Amino acid sequence: MGALSHLRVLDLTRVLAGPWCAQTLADLGADVIKIERPGAGDDTRHWGPPYLKTPEGADTREAAYYLCANRNKRSVTVDIATPEGQRIVRELAAQSDVVLENYKVGQLKKYGLDYASLAEVKPDIIYCSVTGFGQTGPLAERAGYDFIVQGIGGFMSITGERDGQPGGGPQKAGVAIADLMTGMYATVAVLAALAHRDRTGTGQYIDMALLDVQVAMLANMGANYLTSGKAPVRWGNAHQNIVPYQAFQTRDGWIIVAVGNDAQFRKFVEVGGRPELADDPRFATNPERVRHRDTLVPLVAEMVKTRGKHEWIASLEQAGVPCGPINDLAEVFENEQVRSRGMRVEVPHSSGATAALLRSPIQMSETPPQVRTAPPMLGEHTDEVLRTLLGYDDATLARLRERAAI
After folding, report:
1. Which of 15, 172, 255, 320 lies at a C-alpha separation of 20 to 30 Å from 385?
2. How many helices (H) and strands (E) does the chain have?
3. Average per-residue pLDDT in the chain?
4. Three-class SS of residue 4?
5. Is 27 considered catalytic here?
6. Which UniProt keywords apply (predicted)?
7. Could you tell me which residues come within 8 angstroms of residue 68 by beta carbon, excluding any fewer than 6 positions away?
8. What is the pTM of this model?
9. 404, 362, 16, 390: which is closest to 181 by C-alpha?
10. Which listed residue (179, 207, 280, 393) is catalytic?
């Protein structure tokens, strides 16, 4: 029994931010019913390759992108543009605790599926809308894309190599960070709203915006600007206030060296066979190293290139100098810590394939998240859900299919 196994979530979201929230709730035990367009489904089902393959090597046409955000859910195909489809969603909402949606502002109102309409059939419903720019403001009706939001929200102004350096310029994150963080903030908001409902019996509306989240997660960099009035700049893999505290290329890969004090710097250069650098007045203290960064870093970089990354990691760890490798994903999933924590899980898929997935990082002693089912095939649970929750019989289901409502 998961911590949220008493809850039902009606998931009308697609792509990543909304599905990420729904998947987190599902991992914690909630019954998540994913509403998808008949014949097409979530756009990410087709965002491949790569696609999940059967044991015979055939593509299932289930894209890895879709698989990453939709485990532990049930898929029901409903055309919400039809009156019958709208009625189905309202009936399911009446038996749900939470509704998640990420349609354009105002789009669901014309279908009678907005918060005000569903609150009439379920007064204590928790209704969470996820959009790019929120329900209000001059950009509210603009479509929101993670990449664009990373730019507008300032993230790319502080991410990437320094201007004037090789490869310098703005850089997005390697994953859709605004989407993912919006999904996590939405999860927190939903759980807070449920706690309030449990105390008061009152539902509520949640307005989540990617841009709001991207600005909020500027964290200390945002606070630096608000405090000083000076916009921070990109520093790549270097640290603005500590040297050497950055990535270095070894003979066969990259490592991170995070020297936090003068004693660690001395140990670092002693391991590298350059102890005289610690005695040089230009490098003896961190303020001097920062001042003479452009002289010191090339010397250290040449020193690091003389050995392989595993040799460096072993030597620096033994000396007590903070360090670590920059792993590719093959190395990540071979890492003994990642393996011991069970971050990779394999789940039987309805196609006959085995889906390799990432488990939730949440660890709980009494109600740990579980991977119960693989991401569903399109419409896999339509009949099951409509029969058990709404009491539809064979004739009703056949009639709905004839009218292309499901």
Report:
1. 15
2. 17, 13
3. 96
4. coil
5. no
6. Transferase
7. 357, 358
8. 0.93
9. 16
10. 179
Residue with tokens 């996590």: 184
pLDDT band at 330; cut points 50, 70, 90: very high
**245-249+254-325 CATH choice from 3.30.1330.10, 3.40.190.10, 3.30.1540.10, 3.40.50.300:** 3.30.1540.10
- Note the pLDDT tens digit of each residue in 66-122: 999 999 999 999 999 999 999 999 999 999 999 999 999 999 999 999 999 999 999
What is the rounded CA–CA span in Å between residue 351 and residue 348?
8
Enumerate the domain spans of the chain. 8-217+338-402, 245-249+254-325
* Backbone angles phi and psi of 399, in degrees to 5: -65, -40
Considering all CA atoms of the chain, what is the largest pairwise distance in Å, rounded to the nearest integer? 87
- Identify whether the C-beta of residue 69 lies closer than 8 Å to the C-beta of residue 44: yes
111-137 mean pLDDT:
97
Within 81-237, strands assigned E span 98-101, 126-131, 204-209
Cis link prior to 244 (omega < 30° from 0)?
yes
**DSSP designation for 48:** -
Q: What is the CATH number of domain 8-217+338-402?
A: 3.40.50.10540
Find the Cα–Cα–Cα–Cα dihedral 145, 149, 150, 151, rounded to 10°: 110
pLDDT digits (tens, 9 = 90+) for 360-392: 999 999 999 999 999 999 999 999 999 999 999
The span from the CA of 147 to the CA of 131, in Å, is: 14
